[in-house]
Amino acid sequence: MEEKLVDPPSYADFMFSPYAGEGEVEGLGMMGGGGIEENGFRMDGGSGRVGEMGGGSASSSCAPVAGGAAEGSASRLSSRAGSRSAPGDAAAAAAPLGKDALFIVVSDPMKAVEPGGSLVPGGGTFVTYCVKTRTTIVEFSKQEFSVRRRFRDFVTLADRLAESFRGYFIPPRPDKSVVEGQMMQSKEFIETRRMALEKYLQRLAAHPVIRRSEELRIFLQAEGKLPLMPSTDLASRMLDGAVKFGSEILPRQLFVSEMVSPPLSADVAQPAKGGRDLVRIFKELKQTVANDWGGGRPAIVEEDKDYMDKRENLLKLERHLADTSLQAETLVKSQTEVGVVMGELGLAFIRLANFEEQHAGGVGTTEYQKQHATDARCTGGASVRIGRLNKQAISDTMVQLGLLHEYLAMMQAVHTAMADRSNALLTVQTLMSELAAKKARIEKLEAQSSKVFGGDKSRTRKIADLSRDVALTEAARDVAQQEYDRIKERNRSEVERFTKQRHHDFWSMIEGFVCTQVAYANRAAKIWREMAGQIGGPTPPFEPALSTPSV
């Protein structure tokens, strides 16, 4: 029996929706359940599906996850810790979680009203999402729990992760839409955002370090308002010249003037470009100009040739991913057009058959017209079946080739992590320049003071102040150097992990894509052979051009 005829999602729609769950079909992890099986291969009947808990539930509560239904779609960039069940597979859903498993589902979007309201139409309301989690990671207090979060909370989580995990390839969060008003309240927009947020959390849960972070744990577990403090906005930083972390206020950093306190170690471990301190931004900008325009060789430079080669290769990879993703989109569009045309051709043959039956004897012999009607109806039925089969193949193709777009989006995280390394190096260079300037200032004051009989008390005080500043700046430089070394090591391990995961995922992608094309070709050939037998013609003696590969 043929699958229900449905329009496949567009390539762009699929890119922002979760992947179908992974099932085991003849040892292949890429093929999903619920499809057509042909010669050992399985044609999945849908794409972009989520787990049983994944849709917008009619329930208004955010109940704990039941069974294993939360084990829905998962990112291809995962470390694949724990076991995963395909959506709708009750047996797999009831299975216990594996060691260190972490499954997250975002569901049940609900509208809420801002306490203060808004003058902008639709601006006084927002949407909350139920975030349901199942885990066996020991750092979590329970194995199953759920909380409600709004998009602003996801932004806060992303900001805190960016601050705490510099140098890691942190999956990028969904962008905040610039669309306001009623469009943001539409069901389509809310569902698209829900799927994007779910995929984002699943990517975080797949990261071997972030999945155990305190920030993610608080986000997933803490009930009520998110306790994570959002980053201070740029305007308040400009007024205060500081950033507040709890009750601690960090002073201004990286001033040349000896009248201002030198940087503290807590300051230099964070980047300046986020607006943390305008004076530090200007000082590091000055250092950047000096580096680029030949203002003298910095005391420390990037000399890791292996890292620079890998960085260049990743940039080339991004360009190839962009081109391949574009060609994949072209393929999907072309196959979609073929399926549509095949279905329309089938309907045209069926209309022709109806005409032949209704006007039998009017334009020829009745016997011939009935035979023509039968043949046309068989041809039309086969064409419609091929069109439906084509839609199923397109759905699987989008699932498999969509991995290209996944990795293309992940390149943003790669750029950010490598920018963290460059910024950390710039901080070290700036501090070392500051140190050299302060020491030169001390030498100059000492030389001037030595010319005065009995010493110059004013210059002596300045020398003492500068000496204390030098000691503090040296301590800050050491901390900045440690942070730079730490980010270097994180970059190294992340590039290695990224390369291994990409090799595994791309092999699975190609394997699944080939199997889908083979299954489609075999099933299509079978339909045409059956049609040839039905119209009384000779059954083609040949086998399909594509045979099952040994993969």
Automatic annotation (TrEMBL):
MF term (GO), any: phosphatidylinositol binding
Keyword vocabulary terms for this entry: Coiled coil
Coiled-coil boundaries: 428-497
Keyword Coiled coil found: yes
SUPFAM superfamilies in the record: BAR/IMD domain-like, PX domain
Region spans: Disordered: 43-65
Annotated Gene Ontology cellular component terms: endosome
Residue span(s) of domain PX: 107-226
Residue ranges with Gly residues bias: 43-57
Protein name: PX domain-containing protein
Classification lineage: Eukaryota, Viridiplantae, Streptophyta, Charophyceae, Charales
